[in-house]
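How it folds
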Amino acid sequence: MQQYASIVIAASFALLGLLPLAGSRIRRPLLWLCLLGGVAAGFFAREATKMAWDWVGPIGGLERGPAGLTINLLIAALVGEILKATGPLVAISLTPADAVTGLAYGAASGAGFGLVAGQQFLAMALGLVGTPFITPLSTAVAVVAWFFPTLAHIVTTAYLIRAGVRGGLGLALLFVVALQTIFGLAQKLPLAGGIPTGVLLTAAISLWLLAHLWRARLRAGAQVSIVP
C-alpha cells in the first residue's frame, strides 16, 4: 500500500512543480517524452554516481578526507544534471524551440527525475508509520517537505535548458550543479527548534528560482502577443 501511495504522492508533487513552467506546452508530446526521459535518468543516476565515485574517491584519499562528502555530492549533482538535460537538449535540437519551450522541456525532465527520487524517499517515510517515535504528524511533515527537493530538480533543469536555447549553457551548468550540491549539503544541517533547516533552505532557493523562471515565461509570452 505504501508503495502505491508513494508513487501517487511523488507524481502529484512532480506535476505541481511542472505546471507553472510548462504552461500551454503541457500538451506537446515532446514534453511528455522529456518527462519519461527524466524518469529513466532518475533510475540510472544513482548507479552512474556510484561508478564515478568509485573512480574519483580513491584519488588522493578523497573518500576518507573531510572534503569527501562535498565531492561526492558535487559528482552526484553533475551526473544528475547531465542525465536530466540529455533528453531536453536532444528535443530542442530536433525541432525549432524558443527559450520558453526549452524551459518547459527542462522542467518536464526534472519532474520525471524528481518523481523517481521522491518516490524512493516517500516509500521509506510511509513505511515507518506505526513504528516507535514516528507520529502521524512527523510523517505528514516529512512527506509534504519532500515537495521542495522535487521542485529543486524541476527548476534547475528548466534553468539549464532555457540557457541551452538562449546561450550560456556552460555557465548555467556550473550554476545548477552548485545549487544541487548546496541542496545536498543542506540536508545534513541540524534541526533548529525541531525545524529541518535544510528543507527551509531548499524551499527558499527553489521557490525563488521558480518565481524567476515563471516571470521569464510570462514576459516571453507577453512579448510574443504584441508582435504584429
